[in-house]
Structures are given as structure tokens and as C-alpha cells.
Design a protein that fits this description.
two-stranded antiparallel ribbon, 295 residues, 5-stranded mixed sheet, Rossmann fold, alpha/beta
Length: 295
């Protein structure tokens, strides 16, 4: 009788995944002072009736896997364990949402940064897949830079999804992109018979005051703006679109990492692709996506 196959204990990018290395391997890494260490920050929260609640945290791992596959073996880059539960209080009241406080999120990231600093690493990059984490991450990274002297930033992709204006402006959650991504990577966990197109009031995206990614934002909770938990055109998220978008986004992330010089060569400027001051922002023109846009 053949024994059942056991799942792989580490990701396919084990040589870049710090928990998959021995202490001597970590100690001997020659590029720790300037190689970025990526921490994915996600969430466990409702994503409408058609998607699993782990979308954000799952996508952090999907991006990590695909980014690593696009990197040359000569490109220094490492991955730390992800933070899988985030600050998701905007989804309070929906089953399946797990919430940690802003203080807990801040403490987790600071502890990770301190340990990386003690191991000899000099750069921390955030791959954020949940918009509710953003404000906390911004001030925490500034704190980490001031306290530890680590170079920090947000890993972002600049890609064009060709989405209509309404989806770009108001498609914030369980939307076309998220549905397409899941259709591509885990269709068995998607129930498209329950996917609907639902948007907040268009007035929420008028002028400079918007719910997300704008010069001025306002507080909101999902229950106030969506009956289903969806904010976007979920039925438009096809597997075909998902496969294409996953590929161009992962490639863009990897290109940003590859193009970034060591900090000694650019210490006074943010790294290309690791912008300190514009995390989780979406370009409104031409349907392009800047960094993550998962809420």
C-alpha cells in the first residue's frame, strides 16, 4: 500500500524563506545588510458570499510564490513568515472575520523587525494585501526606521488591468480582481452563483474625498455600504482574466525588486518599487493598479 503524499513542509522558494533555513545558513548569508526581507501582511475577513474569508492572506502567499519564481537566483531577496490576521474592524458583523487591534499589528511588525535587525538584515519590505492595515503599517515603518535604522518600504506593482472607471473608483472588496485571482488559483473554493455586482453610493467617490486611496478619506464599515459584503463587479472576475493579471502583477513586483540597488548606493532615496509614502494606492487613470488594492 502506497503511503499518501504529504504536503510540502516549506514553500517552493525555500532557499529564500527564512523559516526554511538553518541558523548557520542564515548566519552565513552574504547579502543580509542590503537584501530586502519581505513580510506579507494580510487578513482573514468576509469576502462576500462567493469567496473564502482567507483571500487576503492567501494572496500574500500567492504573490510571494510567484515573485520568487520570477527572480533570478542571483537576485538577493528573502521572505519572512507572513502576518495573516490583520486590522479588519471595518468588516465587523460579518461571520468569518478575525480582527486584531492596531496595537497588536504594530507590535507584531516591530518584533519581526527587531529580530531581523539582530540577525543582521538591513531592509524590511511590506507586501500588504489588506487596505485596512495600511495606516498602521505606515507609521510603524517610520518608527522602525527611527528606532532600528532599517530601510523600510512597501513593495508595489504598477500594472494596467484595463478596468472601467466605476470599478477603479468603487470596486474595493471582493471585486473583479479578487474574484478573478481566486477563479484562477482556487476555483474549487469560489461559488460564482453567489457573485453579484454591488457598489457603494457613487457619491462616495466624488471629488477628493473618497473611501480609499485619496488625498482625504472617511471612515466606513462594510455593513453601511454593502448588503452582500461585495464592493465591486464580482461576476466580471473570470479565470482567464485572473491568470493574466496574476502573471503581469507578479512580474512587475519581481522587476521592482531586481531593479532596486543596495541601500549604500541610494540611502537617501526610497527604493524604486518600495515607496514609503504611497502604499496601497490605485492610479485612477487608464485602469491601472498601483500596489495592492485588496480591502
Amino acid at each position: 500500500m502506497t503511503a499518501p503524499l504529504m504536503p510540502a513542509p516549506f514553500p517552493s522558494y525555500r532557499q529564500r524563506y527564512l523559516p526554511g533555513l538553518t541558523l548557520n545558513q542564515i548566519k552565513a548569508l552574504p547579502d543580509k545588510a542590503w537584501a530586502p526581507v519581505i513580510v506579507a501582511t494580510g487578513a482573514i475577513e468576509q469576502h462576500g458570499p462567493h469567496l473564502p474569508v482567507a483571500v487576503d492572506s492567501l494572496m500574500g502567499q500567492v504573490w510571494s510564490e510567484r515573485i520568487a519564481a520570477h527572480l533570478s537566483p542571483a537576485t538577493p531577496c528573502y521572505f519572512a513568515p507572513p502576518i495573516t490576521i490583520g486590522k479588519s474592524n471595518e468588516h465587523v458583523g460579518f461571520p468569518g472575520t478575525l480582527i486584531i487591534s492596531k496595537d497588536t499589528l504594530r507590535r507584531q511588525l516591530i518584533v519581526i523587525a527587531r529580530q531581523l535587525h539582530q540577525w543582521g538584515f538591513g531592509q524590511l519590505s511590506i507586501l500588504n494585501t489588506h487596505g485596512g492595515n495600511t495606516d498602521v503599517l505606515i507609521y510603524t515603518l517610520h518608527e522602525i526606521e527611527a528606532e532600528l535604522g532599517l530601510a523600510t518600504g512597501f513593495l508595489r506593482a504598477d500594472v494596467d488591468y484595463g478596468l472601467p472607471e466605476k470599478e477603479r473608483s468603487l470596486g474595493m472588496h471582493a471585486n473583479t480582481a479578487e474574484t478573478a485571482w481566486l477563479q484562477a488559483i482556487a476555483p474549487q473554493y469560489v461559488d460564482m452563483s453567489l457573485a453579484v455586482s454591488e457598489y457603494p453610493d457613487p457619491a462616495a467617490a466624488s471629488g477628493q474625498l473618497r473611501p480609499e486611496a485619496a488625498p482625504a478619506t472617511f471612515a466606513w464599515v462594510t455593513a453601511d455600504v454593502s448588503r452582500s459584503g461585495i464592493m465591486g463587479d464580482a461576476p466580471a472576475g473570470t479565470a482567464e482574466r485572473g491568470h493574466h493579471w496574476l502573471e503581469i502583477t507578479a512580474r512587475s513586483y519581481a522587476q521592482k525588486i531586481t531593479a532596486s540597488p543596495p541601500p549604500a548606493k541610494r540611502r537617501s532615496k526610497p527604493r524604486p518599487g518600495l515607496g514609503r509614502h504611497d502604499p496601497w494606492t490605485r492610479r485612477r487613470s487608464a485602469g491601472s493598479l498601483r500596489h495592492e488594492w485588496i480591502a
